[in-house]
Amino acid sequence: MTTTSESTEHHTPSGAARLLPGAPVAEAVLADTAAAAARLRSRGITPSLATILVGDDDASAGYIAIKQRQAAALGFASPHVHLPATATQTELHQAIARFNTDPGVHGLLVQYPVPGHLDYDAALQTIDPDKDVDGMHPLNMGRLAVGLPGPLPCTPAGIEALLAYYEIPVAGREVVILGRGATLGRPLAMLLAQKRPTANAAVTVVHTGVPDWARYTRRADILVAAAGVPGIVQPEHVKPGAVVIGAGVRYDGRRLLPDVDEACAEVAGAITPRVGGVGPTTVAMLFRNAVRAAERASQ
Ligand SMILES: NC(=O)c1ccc[n+]([C@@H]2O[C@H](COP(=O)([O-])OP(=O)(O)OC[C@H]3O[C@@H](n4cnc5c(N)ncnc54)[C@H](OP(=O)(O)O)[C@@H]3O)[C@@H](O)[C@H]2O)c1
C-alpha cells in the first residue's frame, strides 16, 4: 500500500541519540536502482513502473507526480491511468488487467486510498504478483514466509535497509516490534527473522493481546514502533542505548503524529527523526522492487 507517509519535512529531536534519517538510505537504494536500470536499458529493456489513480484527491495526485518524476530520474517508463472517481470495481480491475498483460510493464501500483465505494484489497489481489511493487499481494506475503524471491513489502524492506545502511547490527540481537499489522509489523517480523546477515534477529511481536508489552520493549536492542497510536512509545518503554525505529504514524489532516514520543531521544542510542525516517525508504523500495521485477522478467 502506498500511504500518505511520503512527506519530506524534517525535524530534529532535542536529545542525545544519534539520528537515523531515511533520505541517505533512499539515495543509496535509488543509486543502485538507477545502475540496474541502466544495465537493463543497455540490453534494450526499459524498466517501467505503472500507476493507477482513481478519483481527484490532490494529495494522491501529488504522490503520483513525485513517483513519475522519480521514474524519469531513474530512466524508468511510467505509464499512468487516471480513472474517474465514479469508476466501478470492474473498471479498476480492467485497468489492472491491461497492465498485467502488458509485457512492457514490470511493476504496477494502485495509489491508496481509492474512493470509498471501491474495495482496495480486492483490487490488490488482481495485480500480477510478479508486478506487485508494494509487495503486499497475499502470494508475496507467502513467498516472504517461505523465503522465495519476490517483491518485498516496501516499509519492512526499507527498515531492514535503514538498519544495514547505518551498520546497526541486527543478527543475534533482540528486536521487539510493537504492532502486528499486515502492512508493517507482521511482514517485518518475518523479514528480520530470516537467515541473512542483515537480519537473523531474535524477533518478538507485541500487540493489544499483550497488555504488559512494555516488559518486552524495555529489553529490546532494537525497538520498532508499528502501532499507529500517537505517542504510544514513551522513554520508560525504551532500554537505555537502544535503537528506536518509529514507523507507525497517524495523520490529523496533514499533521503527522508519530508513535514515538520525541523524549525517547533522551534515552535511545539511535533513533529515526520524527519526520523523514522510514518514509523515504518506503518510496525507494517501490523502484527497487520494479527494477528487480524487470530483471526477473528478462532472465
Ligand atoms: N512509514 C511508512 O512508510 C509506513 C508504511 C506503512 C504503514 N505505516 C504505519 O505503520 C502503522 C501500522 O500499520 P499497519 O497497517 O500494520 O496497522 P494496523 O494493521 O492498524 O496494526 C496496528 C498494530 O498495532 C497494535 N496496537 C494498536 N494499539 C495498540 C496498543 N494500545 N497497544 C499495543 N498494540 C497496539 C495493533 O494490535 P492488535 O493487532 O491487537 O489490534 C496492531 O497489531 C500505521 O501507523 C501506519 O500508518 C507507515
Automatic annotation (TrEMBL):
<comment type="function">
    <text>Catalyzes the oxidation of 5,10-methylenetetrahydrofolate to 5,10-methenyltetrahydrofolate and then the hydrolysis of 5,10-methenyltetrahydrofolate to 10-formyltetrahydrofolate.</text>
</comment>
<keyword id="KW-0511">Multifunctional enzyme</keyword>
<feature type="domain" description="Tetrahydrofolate dehydrogenase/cyclohydrolase catalytic">
    <location>
        <begin position="21"/>
        <end position="134"/>
    </location>
</feature>
<protein>
    <recommendedName>
        <fullName>Bifunctional protein FolD</fullName>
        <ecNumber>1.5.1.5</ecNumber>
        <ecNumber>3.5.4.9</ecNumber>
    </recommendedName>
</protein>
<dbReference type="Pfam" id="PF02882">
    <property type="entry name" value="THF_DHG_CYH_C"/>
</dbReference>
<keyword id="KW-0658">Purine biosynthesis</keyword>
<dbReference type="Pfam" id="PF00763">
    <property type="entry name" value="THF_DHG_CYH"/>
</dbReference>
<dbReference type="InterPro" id="IPR020631">
    <property type="entry name" value="THF_DH/CycHdrlase_NAD-bd_dom"/>
</dbReference>
<keyword id="KW-0028">Amino-acid biosynthesis</keyword>
<feature type="binding site">
    <location>
        <position position="249"/>
    </location>
    <ligand>
        <name>NADP(+)</name>
    </ligand>
</feature>
<keyword id="KW-0560">Oxidoreductase</keyword>
<comment type="subunit">
    <text>Homodimer.</text>
</comment>
<comment type="similarity">
    <text>Belongs to the tetrahydrofolate dehydrogenase/cyclohydrolase family.</text>
</comment>
<dbReference type="InterPro" id="IPR000672">
    <property type="entry name" value="THF_DH/CycHdrlase"/>
</dbReference>
<keyword id="KW-0486">Methionine biosynthesis</keyword>
<dbReference type="InterPro" id="IPR036291">
    <property type="entry name" value="NAD(P)-bd_dom_sf"/>
</dbReference>
<dbReference type="InterPro" id="IPR020630">
    <property type="entry name" value="THF_DH/CycHdrlase_cat_dom"/>
</dbReference>
<keyword id="KW-0368">Histidine biosynthesis</keyword>
<dbReference type="InterPro" id="IPR046346">
    <property type="entry name" value="Aminoacid_DH-like_N_sf"/>
</dbReference>
<keyword id="KW-0521">NADP</keyword>
<keyword id="KW-0554">One-carbon metabolism</keyword>
<comment type="pathway">
    <text>One-carbon metabolism; tetrahydrofolate interconversion.</text>
</comment>
<feature type="binding site">
    <location>
        <begin position="179"/>
        <end position="181"/>
    </location>
    <ligand>
        <name>NADP(+)</name>
    </ligand>
</feature>
<keyword id="KW-0378">Hydrolase</keyword>
<feature type="domain" description="Tetrahydrofolate dehydrogenase/cyclohydrolase NAD(P)-binding">
    <location>
        <begin position="153"/>
        <end position="297"/>
    </location>
</feature>
